[in-house]
Specification:
Elements: H1 2-45, H2 48-81, H3 87-99, H4 102-113, H5 117-124, H6 133-158, H7 161-169, H8 174-185, H9 187-202
Helix pairs in contact: 2-6, 2-9, 3-6, 4-6, 6-9, 7-8
């Protein structure tokens, strides 16, 4: 009995020590940033280059997040609700950007939209992405869309399909059911996905 108590105490000690060490590490790291950065923060914020960077980051992050929402909502719902041929393969492909290092993602996009027939075709029609703000938005979209897709897929899977079925028996079509029943039920997951996607984009 005493041996079990000692083992339990040791296990609890490991948990407590791990929590304490990691918490202190984060607090110390953040406090160093605040202590060194806050005195010069106000002055730095009014530097022309810093203001431009902040405005550009906000602009591109909001737009890329909007694109992520537009594409991820129907895709996540389709994957969550329907079974079709190649579904597992599509799931794997959609997760690839999440596994790639940012440098690899950047090179992949640069090659695709740079010196290729596809890239030249888009540039000739006014869609230039290389060394352009549109390229930043595209890169943010490419890297972040798998995250919101994962969150929304889990959210839609947790919603009971019977609720949608009842809605349709009461006269709503699929589109109305989606907007009137499914989306309101998915509100928390959608908000979480938006916040995480925007935070990653602005980062």
């Amino acid at each position: 009995m005493n041996k079990i108590k000692k083992e339990n105490s040791f296990f609890i000690f490991i948990i407590a020590a791990s929590i304490l060490i990691l918490t202190l590490f984060i607090i110390l790291s953040i406090s160093m940033i605040l202590s060194r950065g806050l005195p010069n923060l106000q002055e730095s914020l009014f530097i022309k280059e810093i203001l431009f960077a902040i405005k550009l980051s906000l602009y591109t992050s909001f737009i890329s997040t909007a694109f992520c929402i537009v594409f991820s909502v129907p895709i996540a719902y389709g994957i969550a609700r329907y079974d079709f041929k190649g579904k597992s393969l599509i799931n794997t492909v959609l997760d690839i950007p999440m596994a790639l290092p940012p440098v690899v993602s950047g090179v992949a996009l640069l090659l695709l939209f740079g010196n290729t027939a596809f890239g030249h075709f888009l540039a000739d029609h006014g869609l230039k992405f290389v060394f352009d703000v549109k390229g930043i938005i595209l890169a943010q979209f490419f890297v972040n869309v798998p995250y919101i897709l994962r969150i929304l897929k889990s959210t839609f899977m947790d919603i009971d399909p019977k609720l949608e079925f009842v809605s349709r028996t009461l006269g709503f079509n699929q589109l109305k059911t989606f907007f009137k029943v499914t989306l309101p039920l998915a509100k928390n997951g959608l908000l979480a996905g938006i916040v995480i996607t925007w935070a990653r984009a602005i980062g």
